[in-house]
Amino acid sequence: MAKALLETEGLTKRFGGVIAADGISLALLPGELHAIIGPNGAGKSTLIGQLSGEIVPDSGYIHFDGRDITALPVYRRSRLGLARSLQVTTLFPDFTAIDNVALSVQAHAGHSFRFWRDVRQEADLREPARAALVRVGLGERATALVADLSHGERRQLEIAMALATRPRMLLLDEPMAGMGSDESARLVETLRTLKGDITVMLIEHDIDAVFALADRISVLVYGRIIACGEPAAIRADAAVREAYVGEG
Amino acid sequence: MLYFIEQCLNGIQLGMLLFMLAAGLTLIFGIMDLVNLAHGSLYMLGAYFAATFAQWTDSFVLGALLALVATAAVGMALEVVAIRRLYGRNHLDHVLGTFGLLLFFNELVRLIWGPAGLTLSLPSEMLNAVQVLPGLFYPLYRLVIIGVTLAVALLLYVLIMRTRLGMLIRAGASNREMVGALGVNIKLLYTIVFGLGAALAGLAGLMQAPILTVQIGMGENILIAAFVVVTIGGIGSIRGAFVASLLVGLADTIGRTFMPDILHAFLSESAASSLGRALSSMMIYLVMALVLIVRPEGLFPATSK
Amino acid sequence: MVDPRVAINVGLVVVLVLVPVYSATTGDTFALTLFTRVVILALAALSLNLIMGFGGMVSFGHAAYLGIGGYVVGILAKEGIGSGFVQWPVAVAASALYALVVGVLSLRTRGVYFIMITLAFAQMIYYVAIGLDRYGGDDGLTLYHRSRFGGLVDLNNKTMFYYLCLVLLLASIYLVWRIVNSRFGMVIQGARSNDRRMRAIGFPTFRYRLVCFVIAGAMCGLAGALLANHTDFISPAMMHWTRSGDLIVMAVLGGMQAMFGPLIGAVTFLLLEEGLSRGTEFPNLILGPVLLLVAISIRGGIDGLIGGVRRG
Questions:
Q1: pTM for this model (two decimals)
Q2: Cα separation, A136 vs A158, whole angstroms
């Protein structure tokens, strides 16, 4: 059995009286695309927040590549290879697409106390940025301002930014939200090409995409994982059906 | 000891005047999200109006009341004509715009009343000292200031906590969009709030006029102190402004009075004197810096937007 | 087809270079004095724009560094150290040091809190200056000898001094241009645009903003040293908060995303101020509302101006 790349045990978080995460234990294997599904309010955002470092768990631990990262600050996790795309697209609106991605690359290319050289001429920042854009299908839009990109294109740019950091693992928080069917299809293809290369935790509502892509699926309800397994098994699981039918 | 109590009373008096300013500022900031550098100008107008009206009517009280009304009116007019165009913008725009208003009002006052200041004299009874404690005499007028401002603070509390208007104000402070969605006439609410803030500022200005000053630019220094108070107390919080006002008023007064003496124990007379003056002027900023380091959102931050 | 902005900038530089020529031929020395002041304050506004326009850090206490730079020159001169080679580096270093302290304490706060705390720190140093009886206190201190540079350049020669200021300004504009477009500049601009995002992708933004803040303070300290020499006088008024307000106005007026913006803003603001003073006894009756109009109407707010990065 391969060693898990990301492992959580007993992850718990309370906000006031609400239990957003109730002893979540997960193990993601290297190269797998693991989907998290569940009704609204199940605690998916809290889970991603804890994994990315923006939310501090009340108890439990998170191990990444064998290392305890439970208390590690956000920017350090990114450097370790755990990259996240944000649910509400928060890019740098004043910059072009390639500027955005190049920033991602720059974050992992040593320190930035360089004051003289024009950053847009630095090939070792621009080339990987361009490559990441091409990979998600935005090669033609490199010089477009983010403000001029469509919603779907911005979600793709998000992914490109995460990819440009050559992560070991990608946390994707509802990347297909608000996308049209064409754009969704294109994103599914992009994600398919990542499988095997990069470990992906995909939080999504789009069930078709989930079942098309996922190696395994975990179902999160009221902060607890009620089922985890291959897509076929999940589809047949009675508890899962109940959770979804109940939500309607 | 009695001297210390006297200085504490002075500190409370200063604190309460600051609270009048800070309450308006924090309301305006909390509800309209507006940084208002021209608030000190309303303070100045209150003093100038009071001095003028008191002279015309030959009555301090009547002059004061007229000044209050006039300042509130000017405030509301200002809101309708100029201030409301700044809502929703970047704070930098507010700083720039209200800075312009500040310059404008200083100049306007110079145009109308001339460069020399005015005086506002008190009715002679107010000048007497009253025995507050055995052996401690305190000017009656200063007690009146404390009394009036405490009463106003209480009225403000009742207004905010017990009336429909107050409820709208509180709701607006924690969630601007919702209040609009509820069908409330937001524009009118904002004008009223601004007018209220103007009245409070004018009140502070006219009350301190007899004992301190009526001159151009008088609003600037106390405005900064009021901003410090609002920052310490937490933007949007009247309760925070109240606590912070007293804290700042006392710190400033006690600091100014006793710092040179404290330093005198370690330094020469002249060094203690100048260092003491410098340090006590800095006192309120030191307090603010300390508070912000420990609690970057102030002591009682209101719910943020 | 020449970009109109480039044309304006070049034209402006040409005009500035020719000011002493104009002054010499017409005998109007006031123009030279006025423009020296413009150039020096443009340098101060440029330093503010580095943190404000590009970094999004609105500092209402930037005049503090003008004061510190000026006071170092004045104090050292009074104590017998008249060499510019000592005074000016110390002025820059002292400003940088104060900026470091202020930055460490303030940069954790955001928005209006940041504005207030920077104002407070400027007020603190203002009161310290008032308390310095030995160096004039409230009345200020005359500078009897301008900074000496041992034959290299004579600051008493008004024309030479003007060109020195102009050269320093242009060099600084170039420096800021390089900084803004470097890796460092990208981090600063990114942090302005979306600080949370920057940290999410792996930048510890605090230290970069702090360094930026210190650079800006140092540059403004140099402007302060120049200002002290220009007016032959130092006083706490150099760091009064309305002076900080003036710098903000200059930066905003000229356009906060443009390298030459602060210079354009300084020229506009100071000429406007000067013109109004001559035209009327109550200049601020016009200047005030003008500022208000600028604040209201700049294309959908200042944010409309912040959006100028167009290369890819």
A1: 0.83
A2: 10
